[in-house]
Design a protein that fits this description.
This protein has 3 helices and 4 strands. By secondary structure, it is α+β, with helices and mostly antiparallel strands.
């Protein structure tokens, strides 16, 4: 699985670095972002923020499109949980 960043901000490098630190448990978020998921997009305030990639490869390894979808969706929900800094169900 991979994440592809969309047009994030004027300081994309700093934002991506901070996001990686949060996902790796090296930092905690300061604010709770308004994130949602509409496959394969993670939305921030209703706008495309991150795209979850890898569904095509997952279909070969997971055995079916349905299984690949479940894995991709679980990964997206994990990312949202981490970026929110809590265990809130998406």
């Amino acid at each position: 699985m991979a994440l592809m960043a969309n047009d994030l901000s004027r300081d994309n490098d700093a934002l991506l670095k901070r996001m990686c630190h949060i996902l790796n448990d090296e930092e905690k978020p300061v604010k709770i972002p308004q994130l949602s998921y509409s496959a394969p997009e993670i939305l921030l305030d209703g706008k495309k923020f991150l795209t979850v990639r890898g569904w095509g490869a997952l279909t070969r390894f997971a055995g079916s499109p349905e299984a690949a979808t479940q894995i991709q969706d679980a990964f997206a929900h994990w990312v949202i949980k981490k970026l929110r800094g809590n265990d809130t169900v998406v």
